Amino acid sequence: MSNYAMEVDVAKVGCLVPKMDDVKKELLVSMKELxxxxxxxxxxxSSDLLLSLEVGNNSKPLPKKIEGYKRPKITRTCLxxxxxxxxxxxxxxxxxxxxxxxxxxxxxxxxxxxxxxxxKEYQRATFWLKNCHSNIPLFLRIYSDYLAAxxxxxxxxSEATPSMFKEYRNFLxxxxxxxxxxxQQKRGDGYLTYLLGMVYVKLEQYEAAVNMLVESIKDVPLNxxxxxxxxxxxxxxxxxxxxxxxxxWMKNFFYCQKYLxxxxxxxxxxxxxxxxxxxxxxxxxxxxKVAVCYHNKRYIEIAVQKFQELIEIEPCRLENMxxxxxxxxxxxxxxxxxxxxxxxxxxxKYRVETCCILGNYYSLHGEHQKAMRYFHRALKLNPxxxxxxxxxxxxxxxxxxxxxxxxxxxxxxxxNKYEYxxxxxxxxxxxxxxxxxxxxxFFKQAQLLRPxxxxxxxxxxxxxxxxxxIDMAFQSYLKGRAMGDDEKLGLIYLAKxxxxxxxxxxxxKMFLEYIEEHxxxxxxxxxxxxxxxxxxxxLSRMNYDQAFHYAQKCLNYAETxxxxxxxxxxxxxxxxxxxxxxxxxxxxxSEKQSKDYDKEEMPRQLELLxxxxxxxxxxxxxxxxxxxxxxxxxxxxxxxxYMNLVDYSEFNID
Length: 654
Known about the structure:
The chain is mostly helical.
């Protein structure tokens, strides 16, 4: 884990973007090749990018800017020169069959197999292409074989036997040998090399997979799915900096995604701003990544605004809407989350994003079993879906199932060790279990990934306090406050820490500041603790008015209601006895001070004392009464009668 703190220079990685006319032509050629081979994900990504192009690449920046991002100075020397472009055909030739490099005698079999492939009848597609040997039909045949085996093992799922897994692995070995043979004979192309890399990923030969994917990208740089598969294998910042990628403008988009995955948010915003300025300002892909980046930086309002803009641009797009549902969940926006869930179900209820949105919706309504059901459904659709594992761990914690929560968070870290939410969740879990040293370790890992996140810093301080390391706890709380204290926990923890080390004056200042900052939200346990401390603090200093005020506040909380009742009676008794003592003292010193004394004052004070004693008697008689509200009303009425009888102007209480 030492790599987390390592600073890696990954700024000089970009490539100059050519004119938008050249980009458009290159995308059109690539889309034809991707479409012919059935690579739907890459073809769709290219078409989305094509729609966002601003034809005519001006040198001056576009007016669109990223909020809150200060553009760094970028010199042209830090970017790789533009490579030579391939010759392209006319845009109208995109889906022309005549232009596909397929022999005439293979065309009929290819077209029929392609129709079967589109219908997800992969084995039929393989059958009709068994005698085809040109590159496009050959790729489609092997790719259909690969998809057929992969979908079959996924559909069997937990019912698969060891013999089935062995058969599946043997088949992957056969495909790898076949593709490697084609590569060695130089009969293949970049797409077949990409497929070889995919097979190596399934065989868990990750180093070989990285080499094949990089080689494929050099040959066919616009195959976005190859970039994404490569990104899934590069989960370390050091490895990313050492990666030798081709000098192509697609590299900029790749680094945007990887910066986001590795929590390098500032670098991601810098690269995105550069691409915006080059003419990709309308790219939905880039806009969605900016929204997710603001979510990571906890700029909640800006992130919500960005996601709402995405919905207005393309209402039926589900990608990254799971992140948007997380924002709505954190803000407790039930109506907006319900609307998002309803819209997602209408679009596609079997998408992982939809399952995640529904899980958040039910979790917000306290239906944790239903929430877990949808997170499990998301994982059945995609076992590597990182967000579902993390959210599932949170649901297990809500149900007090620590063991399954730990397993879920650990699985998330197996997929991506830079998932700070999983580290933070493990810290919370072990803290609840009382294993504070383990908890401190996990919180520190989360803090290394999010060094400027006050939540991580304060969590570390809280565990230090429980371990008895008061100095480190105090430093962590102060640092968390300096970082913004997003959830306003630093104040309350500092105040409680001052109570522990017996500094009541400092504690009172912290509690007062906490109450001032949270004046509109008083329904928390911390508020009741703060009010009770301030009531006792002012009572000890004979500030009876303030003590009475804060004690009354404590009546609104179940955990402090009974203690507040007793405290109110104590305040009344002490106030009466203090006033009687002052009267007696004033009488004995009347001749020396030449001060008149009202002889009727003593009977009035005795009436006050009798009133409180009568209240106690009446209250004891009503103990057997089941109606607690009558008791509270009687107590408050008695105190009010007392307060009306006391003339405050007579006393000056410090």
